[in-house]
From TrEMBL:
Residues 112-228, 429-533 form the Sialate O-acetylesterase domain. It comes from Sinomicrobium pectinilyticum. The keyword Hydrolase applies. InterPro entries: Galactose-bd-like_sf, SASA, SGNH_hydro_sf, SIAE. This is Sialate O-acetylesterase.
Length: 653
């Protein structure tokens, strides 16, 4: 039997060996590198990682070798010489004399890499977009690769992403890719026969400040105080607690709690204490004030005998956000983020009975939104030959299910997304950036004039590849259309985006014609991606003969009671998209009261006037949340919204 000293010595030896194993620093690389990645052609390709301090590192890309020595912290970087588009290649990284202990990454292509970033409209998935089923079925492009960077937020810059790996674009993987980025990449790949890599770093509902570095934000009085407020946060405690609340929040939103889905939709359920309301309508019209949580709606509907025993179709108009639909206690659908944009569903024949039937809807009211959009004739049940309206009196009840936890939305905080989702991929070699964001900054649109160029400058300086192309999407038309000319924070945000074109090597895709009044996430992402690619064709790929933008305001000249507007990017001429009279112009005199104007196309100019304005001082075009406007160039691209005045707007404090 071993004595005590021997046992202790043996235990210490084993512990020593264990610690030695833990302390052994093998070669590692950050998550931006991986199998199936795309590396940027035409530049010296940066590749980096960690190892033992002072280790002699050998890197081989195909038959090309590069060497370096790790610094005192074990950090190393090599730069391969310029490669032409092609592949696949294998990348091997190992310490001199220890090839068996190294890394090997396979299936690598050389092509063009674009960083796709922004908020929800850039994050919006292929499976959520128009014609999704067909697009997914035909999305087999082995030379298009995506790296979706996982959501993460940090108070200090990180050197690695929390998770995410390169994926080959096919019907299995494409569903959750950014639709805008996919359609952009597809056109670039087809037009230029080059592999395309997309580093997708997106998070819905986030302002531009979240994506900008602390150092850059501290340089401006607009953002300085908000950045310093981050210093009160306790990372990771606050972020972890908020993340747990987010998980609970979405569990309640997406999954009925306490078996409510088995109880509330039942035909036997007692709803006598519920409140009556008219449907369709939005929560803001309920008269209950701001509300976030789950709301249940019920309606008893009488069906004629001829409906009994038939498959019926129910159309529930356009419920906002996430909802579930039930008929006589059975779930008919569970729609998540407009997963069925038509909102039409089949009611199986075995559920249908003559006389009284019960329709129930579980609505997740979030972000002070929710409800069912009008018109009333979009709510009905039909057997194919006749309709029974579901509009009118419904009963509703809130707080049947647990309350939603309070979410602090720390991902809104300045710099936290830059730290966790942008900094870790710098300085990966790239071709440029595509960006779709601005909705979250609309209430402070005037500041966006400074904040957006700050982000562009910040990223370019940190990547160290000069003035990399920065292509972005202007906000689409959205919200209820107004009958008279009025002020608009969305119009002012679009103006800030247009002014950003003064930055070098920038391009803007105008989509003022393809938005949706009742959907902040318009589904036609194919055209958004195409228009970004048109700009890339002209600005990045040298096709200078392309018309890549709609008409852009150039100058205005007053001629009596008329104003003559000149444009650039007119192609072979201007026209009204629908063949009718030109719409979208408003004109004002020195009283600054705008009136709808008549507009006549004369060559590459538009003459604007109104009988109500004798001495015009200002002209505006498409200046509204959701303007009715139709001026296009010969390529069918819409004129960019503009104004000739510089009068103080509603977001200029």
């Amino acid at each position: 039997m071993l004595n005590t000293k021997t046992r202790i010595a043996g235990g210490l030896f084993i512990l020593f060996l264990f610690c030695q194993g833990l302390c052994y620093a093998r070669i590692t690389m950050p998550g931006v590198f991986g199998n199936d990645m795309v590396l940027q052609r035409g530049i010296k390709i940066p590749v980096w990682g960690n190892s033992d301090p002072g280790a002699h590192i050998i890197a081989e890309l195909g038959t090309v070798r590069a060497t370096t020595k790790a610094d005192t912290e074990g950090k190393w970087m090599v730069r391969f010489p310029k490669f032409k588009a092609g592949g696949p290649y294998t990348l091997k990284i190992y310490e001199k004399g220890k090839p068996a202990e190294g890394l090997e990454l396979k299936g690598i292509l050389i092509g063009d890499v674009w960083v796709a970033s922004g908020q929800s409209n850039m994050e919006w998935q292929v499976q959520q977009s128009a014609d999704a089923e067909n697009e997914i079925a035909n999305a087999n492009f082995s030379n298009i690769r995506f790296l979706p960077v996982a959501h993460d937020k940090k108070l200090i810059p990180q050197t690695d992403i929390s998770s995410g790996k390169w994926q080959v674009c096919d019907s299995a993987n494409v569903k959750e890719f950014s639709a805008v980025a996919y359609f952009f990449a597809r056109k670039i790949h087809r037009d230029h026969n080059v592999p395309v890599g997309i580093i997708q770093s997106t998070w819905g509902g986030t302002p531009v400040e979240s994506w900008t570095s602390r150092e850059m934000l501290l340089s401006s009085p607009i953002s300085r105080q908000a950045v310093l407020a981050n210093d009160t946060l306790r990372d990771p405690y606050d972020f972890v607690q908020d993340s747990l609340n987010v998980i609970r929040f979405w569990d309640i939103v997406l999954n009925p709690q306490d078996k409510a889905d088995k109880i509330v939709p039942s035909t036997e359920y007692d709803d006598s204490g519920w409140t009556e309301t008219e449907m369709p309508r939005l929560i803001k019209d309920f008269g209950i004030g701001p509300y976030e949580g789950v709301m249940w709606l019920r309606k008893k509907v009488l069906l004629p005998e001829r409906f009994e025993g038939k498959d019926l179709v129910v159309n529930v108009g356009h419920p906002e956000f996430n909802y579930s639909l039930y008929f006589n206690g059975e779930e008919i659908c569970k729609a998540v983020w407009n997963s069925n944009p038509t909102h039409r569903y089949t009611i199986p024949a075995h559920l249908v009975k003559k006389g009284e039937n019960v329709v129930s809807i579980r609505l997740a009211m979030i972000w002070n939104g929710g409800g069912i959009y009008p018109p009333a004739d979009s709510l009905y049940i039909t057997d194919g030959s006749s309709k029974i309206s579901l509009a009118g009196k419904w009963l509703y009840q809130k707080d049947i299910e647990p309350a939603l936890p309070r979410i602090m939305d720390y991902h809104y905080r300045p710099a936290v997304l830059f730290n966790a989702m942008i900094n870790p991929v710098i300085p990966y070699g790239i071709k440029g950036f595509i960006w779709y964001q601005g909705e979250a900054n609309a209430p402070e649109a005037y500041h966006y004039r400074k904040l957006f160029p700050m982000l562009i400058t910040d990223w370019r300086e940190r990547w160290g590849q000069g003035n990399l192309p920065f292509l972005y999407v202007q906000l689409a038309n959205f919200k209820k259309r107004k009958d008279t000319p009025s002020e608009s924070d969305w119009a002012e945000l679009r103006e800030a985006q247009t002014l950003t074109l003064s930055q070098p090597n920038t391009g803007m895709a105008c989509i003022i014609d393809i938005g949706e009044a009742d959907n902040i996430h318009p589904t036609n992402k194919q055209e958004v991606g195409r228009r970004l690619a048109l700009i890339a064709d002209k600005m990045v790929y040298g096709r200078n003969d392309r018309i890549a933008s709609g008409p852009v305001y150039k100058s205005a000249k007053t001629e009596g009671n008329r104003v003559r507007i000149s444009f650039t990017n007119t192609g072979s001429g201007l026209s009204a998209k629908d063949g009718r009279q030109v719409t979208g112009f408003a004109i004002a005199g020195n009283d600054r009261k705008f009136h709808w104007a008549k507009a006549v196309i004369e060559g590459n100019e538009v003459v604007v006037y109104s009988d109500k304005v004798v001495s015009p001082e200002a002209v505006r075009y498409a200046w509204a949340d959701n303007p009715e406007c139709n001026l296009v160039n010969s390529e069918g691209l819409p004129a960019v919204p503009f104004r000739t005045d510089d009068w103080k707007g509603i977001t200029r404090k």
